[in-house]
Specification:
The complex is a heterodimer of chains A (411) and B (250). Chain A contains 14 helices and no strands. Chain A is mostly helical and 411 residues long. Chain B has 250 residues and is of the alpha+beta class. Chain B has a single domain, classed as 2-Layer Sandwich (Alpha-Beta Plaits). A 4-stranded mixed β-sheet of chain B has the order 8-1-10-9. Classes of the chains: A mainly alpha (411), B alpha+beta (250). Bound molecules: iron/sulfur cluster (SF4) (2 copies). The site of one iron/sulfur cluster (SF4) has 15 residues of chain B, from helix 4. The site of one iron/sulfur cluster (SF4) has 14 residues of chain B, from helix 3.
Chain lengths: 411, 250
Amino acid sequence: MQRTSFYFFIGLAVLGLLVGSWGMVQRLLYGLNPVAFGSYVPWGLWVAFYLLFLGLSAGAFLVTTLAYVFEMERFHRLGRLAAYTVLIVLLCEVLFITLDLGRMSRIYRFLISPSFTSLMTWMFILFNAMLIIYALKTFFLIREDLVAWSQDPQRKGRNLYRLLALGKSDYSPADRARDHKTVHGLSLISLPVGLLFYGTNGAFFAILMNRPIWNSALTPLLFIVAAVLSGGALIAFLTHVFLRDDELVTSLGKAVLYNLVILVFLEILQFFVGYLGDNPRVVAALDLIALGDYWWTFWIVHLGLGGLIPLLILIFSKNSPRAVTWACALIVLTFLAVRFNFIIPDLAVYKLEGLEHTFYHARLRTHYTPNLNEWLVSLWVVSLGLLAFLLGSRWLPVISSDHRGGMQHAH
Amino acid sequence: MGKILPSEDVLIRMQRDLKRALQRDPKKVRWTMVIDQGKCTGCHSCTLGCVAENKLPPGVVYRLVIEEEIGRYPAVRRRFLPRPCMHCQNPPCTKVCPVTATYINNQGVVVVDYNRCIGCRYCLVACPYSARTSDFGEWYTRNTPEAPSILVGRTKAAQGYELQPATEYGRKWPQRGTGSPIGNARKCHFCLHRLAVGMLPACVTTCTARATFFGDRNDPESLVYQLLGSPRIFVLKPELGTQPAVYYLK
Ligand code: SF4
Ligand code: SF4
C-alpha cells in the first residue's frame, strides 16, 4: 500500500473513531436504551454486523482449504495476511456481539454457568478456539521476523518486538523447521474447527422452530457458503492491495465466483421452496425480503451490486486482477445487506396473529430501522478494526516478511 | 339451577385450592392456568393488573390481550385471547439460554434469574408465543415537565412510583436505576411472590369476567384439574410440542 493512501485510511479510521465515539458514549451510559430494536425484533444492525465479521474471518479458511485440500502450493504465501485478518475481524465480531448484550458486564457468565444445550455457548467455545488457533498461527508465522526485528539496531521499537518474540534472541534452522510444523498442524486443525464455527453459526438460527425461514437444514450450509464467499472476497481484495500478486488474486477470484454462484443458487432454492410451499408465515417473511420496506437492499444492493455485477466481472474479466479486486470489494461492501436481510425479515413476522393490534409501544412493533446510535457504534467498531489492521500492517511483520529473513512461504 | 347460578365466586374456590396446594409437598405441585375465551370480554384488566403488580416499565408486558375479529360483515364476531407466558413444560426458551439464567423451577414455572441473565435476547427470539420482552430501561416519567410545588416537585413525585420496583421472585430489588432487571429478559412468572404468601396471581384476581383460573393440576380436587377434563380445552400451537401449562377453553 502506498504511503499516502496508508495515511489517508489511517485518517479515515481516526475520524470514524471520533465520530462514532458519540454513539459509544451513549451506549455505555444508557445501555440498550438508545437503540431502535425492541422486543419483537430483538436483534438488529449490530447482529447483522456481527454475522458479517464472523463470515469475513472465513477468508483464512478458504486459503487453507485451497493450500491443503486442493494442494495449491502458491496459497501458502497468503498464510500471514489471512491469519492476521482473522484476528482483526474476530475482534470486531466480538465487540459487536458484546455491545449487543443487555448486560455486557456479565459476559463472564459464559465461564461460570454455561449451558451446553445452547448453541450460543458453543459459539462462544468455537469463537475462542478460532481466536487461539489464529493467534498462535500468526505468532509462529511471524516469530522469525520478530526475532530478526528485535535484533536489528536500526529498527524503532525493538523492545516491543523482543517482548512479542517472548525474549527469544536467535532463530535457528531447527526453530524454523519446528515452527513450520506447528503452523502446518494449526492449519489442519483450523479446517474442521472453521467448518464447525461457520456451520454452528447457521445452526444457531436453524434450530429455532417456528421461525419461518431460519428453521431449515439449509441454513447452516448457507452460512458456510456465505462466510467463505465474503471472507474469500476480502482476502482477494487485501491480496491485491498489500501483496500485488496477480496470479493469486485471479485464482482467488475463481473460488469467489464458485461461491457466489452457490450462494445465489441456495437463495433461489429458499425462495422457490418457500413460495411453492405456500406457508403463510414463510411467504410473509419472503415477501418482506423481496417486497418489504427494504426491498432495495435485496434487489439493488445484494443482487445487483453484490451479485450480478461481480458475477459478470468475475466471468468476463477473470484474468484482470484489478477487475477481480473490484468485484471482490463490491461483494464485501454489500454483504451487510445479505446479513441484514437474513436477520430482520424473519423476526419481523408477528408470532401470533393480532399482536400487532394490541399493547402499543415502540419496542413492541416489528417495524425496525436502525437509528443513528446504532450506526455510530457500528462506525466506531469498524473504524477500530480498520485502524488496528493498518497499524499492524505497518508495524508488525504480518503482511510480508520485509525480505529481511523470515518465511517467504508462510505456512 | 345450582349449576347455572354459582353458589360462590370462583375466586373463593381457587383461594381454597391455593391454600391446599401450599400445604402439599412443593415438588408435587404443578401450577396451571386455564383461560376461558368464552368468558373473556377483552377488558384488559389482567394486563393492567399485571403491569401494576410487577411495576412493568413502558415496553415490557407479561400478559396482553389479543383482540381478533373473525368472520365477514355482517357475520362478524370478536374474540379475545389473553396471552401470558405459557410456562411450557418443554420450553424452547430455556434450552437456548447460554448461561442457565432461565429454567423451569420445581413447580413447573419458567423463571428468569435477573442476576444471571446477560441480556442476549436469544430466548426472546426462541419463544414461539412472543411471551418475553426485554427491559430497555424506559421510564414513564421521562420528560415529565417540572412544575413548581411546595413539597417535592412533579417529576420526583411521579418517579416515586417508578423507582420502587416490585418484589418479583420474592426479592427486594434495588431502586430502579441502571441495574437489573434493566437489560434483562422479563416475562410472566405466575406471580410466584404472591403465591408464596397465599395470594392468587394478580391477573386472576383482576379479571372482571372471572375468565382466568389458576391452581395445581396435580390436585384432583382443584378447579383447574376439573377444567382440564373439558372437551373445550386446547393449547396454543400444540404442533410445536412445547406442552404449555396455560390452557384455554374454547
Ligand atoms: S411461552 Fe415462551 S417464554 Fe414462556 S415458557 Fe414457553 S417458550 Fe418460554
Ligand atoms: S436474554 Fe437472558 S434469559 Fe434470555 S437467553 Fe439471554 S441470558 Fe438467557
